[in-house]
């Protein structure tokens, strides 16, 4: 593999077409079997044109490494997102780069350190148990929507300082309005979806502002309390304006992704009774007490394998987008400044050169004996490199807490005649919402 700033007189663009569809229109980018063939035929870099923009598509573990690590200086996150995104989410990590990003990420990190996660554990457990009891009483549910509420309640309680109950429902409704704004035409009249998204954003920001003031006056154990008081080595803190934008981003980045993965987990576990039995056996062997400790969570190593396998086969996020800031060469091809670049997460995850029988759901591939993910950047469901998902440990913790109680005390059955196909909307979701019958074992 080669990569450097451009040196050629006559640039050789990556294979593909900027005219008639070669790799296909946008939907084919999400057709992993097709893109895997393109990868095997042309290598880790091809080009296409989507919505009037030239796009360089990076695929496979080596190309992932380039875009996410060794060549990351050729890319900007800020230019990878549409303008609506910046307006709706404000100046937050997703649209920050360079020193600005490094400094802000460092200021946010304490909310995701081990000690903070330890503080969140009890709240996560309480929320998980409340939802499980509610589901038991209902007996039948569309699980995707329930998981969305669950992960939203966790994120809004621990990260944005909301109180359980009414606040969560109202905030969650506002959030649905806000996210609709990302995929609409930005016409800002009050009755248009975009106008409503802007109003929802303002209401959410007003809410977060009040929470920030309250935490300044009376700190609690949540992330917001920690962040209003965090200073870097130069004594610099996040301003209220910065903090509110970052909190809004956390709510956005942190709840639908985790809900998507929990939904896939619930399906995979039911479709693979041997895996379900093994995951339950691990919970039983741990002889867990009335409440979980971080040591218990760490000891759930088979569950870690199940989570990794779910991340591999059903990554909630399909791709990461960047703007190209400087013309560069990769593998003998030139990628010009001003193009969009993206890396396709699913291609490396299903590469038969790395994963044996890649379409099979097989958590044992991540056992210490096999460890098929030892090739760097071959498992990138949470991104990779210096900008790997900030909420990785938070998401793992909330999912493991939910799964530990679910495996020990509950059982479920898939309702017949439902559409179990998953599509990216924009995270990976089952078309039919995953309807199940649910009971206490
Ligand atoms: C299963 C759950 C999650 C998945 C699959 C996921 C996935 C990802 C991915 C793929 C990226 C990198 C995108 C890219 O390279 O373009 C990312 C970044 C990020 N995620 Fe997550 N995420 C999850 C949960 C969370 C949670 C719970 C939070 C916050 C509480 C969060 C906050 C972030 C942030 C702030 C970034 C940007 C980091 C930076 O720019 O430095 N994520 N996530």
Structure write-up:
The chain is an alpha+beta fold. It has a domain at 1-70 and 318-356: Uridine Diphospho-n-acetylenolpyruvylglucosamine Reductase, domain 2. Helix content is 50%, strand content 12%. It has 16 helices and 13 strands. It has helices at 26-29, 32-42, 60-70, 83-89, 98-108, 114-138, 143-158, 166-180, 193-217, 223-229, 240-271, 273-285, 294-299, 301-313, 345-349, 392-409; strands at 3-5, 45-50, 53-58, 75-76, 140-142, 319-324, 328-330, 333-335, 340-344, 410-414, 422-424, 428-430, 435-440. A five-stranded mixed β-sheet has the order 2-3-9-6-4. Strands 1-7-8 form a three-stranded antiparallel β-sheet, with no helix packed on it. Strands 5-13-10 form a three-stranded antiparallel β-sheet. α9 crosses α10 (223-229) and α11 (240-271) packs across α14 (301-313). The longest helix has 32 residues, at 240-271. The radius of gyration is 22 Å and the shape is globular. The site of protoporphyrin IX containing FE (HEM) has 24 residues, from α11 and α16.
Bound molecules: protoporphyrin IX containing FE
What pattern of helices and strands is seen along the backbone? EHHEEHEHHHEHHHHHHHHEEEEHHEEEE
Q: What is the C-alpha radius of gyration, as a whole number of Å? A: 22 Å
Strand order of the largest sheet: 2-3-9-6-4
Number of strands: 13
Describe, in short, the structure shown.
With about 450 residues, this protein is α+β, with helices and mostly antiparallel strands. It has helices at about 25-30, 30-40, 60-70, 85-90, 100-110, 115-140, 145-160, 165-180, 195-215, 225-230, 240-270, 275-285, 295-300, 300-315, 345-350, 390-410, and strands spanning about 5, 45-50, 55-60, 75, 140, 320-325, 330, 335, 340-345, 410-415, 420-425, 430, 435-440.
